[in-house]
Amino acid sequence: MAKVGLVMGSISDWPTMQLAAQQLTALGIDYERRVISAHRMPATLQTYGEQAAERGLQLIIAGAGGAAHLPGMLAANTLLPVIGVPIKTRALNGVDSLLSIVQMPAGVPVATMAIGDAGAKNAALMAAQILGLQDEKIQQAVLNFRQRQRQEAEQSEQQF
Ligand SMILES: Nc1c(C(=O)O)ncn1[C@@H]1O[C@H](COP(=O)(O)O)[C@@H](O)[C@H]1O
């Protein structure tokens, strides 16, 4: 059963959001993938947020670009933690997305990642670290990831 809801505002966000998907899969975390725009599908977004926890999701990763209200509106409709991924935009390089996601009013937090690909990958890792508090297998997968990453960094220095 899916633990993570991976939501994006448009299919055009997928090249970035697939990095989150790949990282979740690599860590053995089941997710469901949805395209739901707060602007274009407001009723669907509200229902998705309201039903997310009762359907068994434990966390939501939401990516959107430009006037990126999606993560904040999901957070407004659920008590699950929402991790926001600002998609890099052509007009403003994703600074628009970042500011739209990060500047939430006090009371409705969104855990905001970096702009673009690194943010998407880190969203999955952050999700894994949160879920890993209650799930030893996921915590072990994160530990293995960190060990491999350290080894790769050490090897790259030796080849330098
Ligand atoms: N920011 C939002 C929302 C939202 O926040 O509800 N819905 C779509 N979008 C964003 O619009 C950008 C362009 O979308 P299109 O490529 O479909 O025109 C995407 O990055 C999407 O996340």
From TrEMBL:
InterPro entries (alphabetical): PurE_ClassI, PurE_dom, PurE_prokaryotes
PurE domain span: 2-153
Binding-site positions, substrate: 10, 13, 40
Keywords: Isomerase, Lyase, Purine biosynthesis
EC number: 5.4.99.18
Reactions performed catalytically: 5-carboxyamino-1-(5-phospho-D-ribosyl)imidazole + H(+) = 5-amino-1-(5-phospho-D-ribosyl)imidazole-4-carboxylate
Pfam families hit by this protein: AIRC
GO terms, molecular function: 5-(carboxyamino)imidazole ribonucleotide mutase activity; phosphoribosylaminoimidazole carboxylase activity
Domain of life of the source: Bacteria
Gene3D superfamilies cross-referenced by the UniProt entry: 3.40.50.1970
KW Lyase (keyword) present: yes
Pathway membership: Purine metabolism; IMP biosynthesis via de novo pathway; 5-amino-1-(5-phospho-D-ribosyl)imidazole-4-carboxylate from 5-amino-1-(5-phospho-D-ribosyl)imidazole (N5-CAIR route): step 2/2
Enzyme class of the recorded protein, top EC level: isomerase
Keyword Metal-binding attributed: no
The family this protein is said to belong to: Belongs to the AIR carboxylase family. Class I subfamily.
Purpose of the protein: Catalyzes the conversion of N5-carboxyaminoimidazole ribonucleotide (N5-CAIR) to 4-carboxy-5-aminoimidazole ribonucleotide (CAIR).
Protein name (database record): N5-carboxyaminoimidazole ribonucleotide mutase
